[in-house]
Amino acid sequence: MDVLKVSAKSNPKSVAGALAAVLRERGTAEVQAVGAGAVNQSIKAIAIARGFVAPNGINLIAIPAFSEIVIDGEERTAIRFIVEPR
Fold first, then answer.
1. Where are the alpha helices (DSSP H) in 1-86?
2. Residue 1 above 70 pLDDT?
3. Is the pTM of this model over 0.70?
4. 23, 49 Cβ separation under 8 angstroms
């Protein structure tokens, strides 16, 4: 599964469009964020994406989980949201 990586500077509407496209194509998606700002943008994007796919009868849920990743040789904790239809 492809992981959509979100930063604090990501445009939530753009992320929501990408998220909706992945959901329509694959049925499930993962969003990854490191830091409070990135988590904030991710949640906004998931909320916007719900509005994008709702007319198709799709009700989204997001399941949060922690993930350990390596950035520039340094281990960091990321938050991953598994997004799928209910």
1. 12-26, 36-53
2. no
3. yes
4. yes
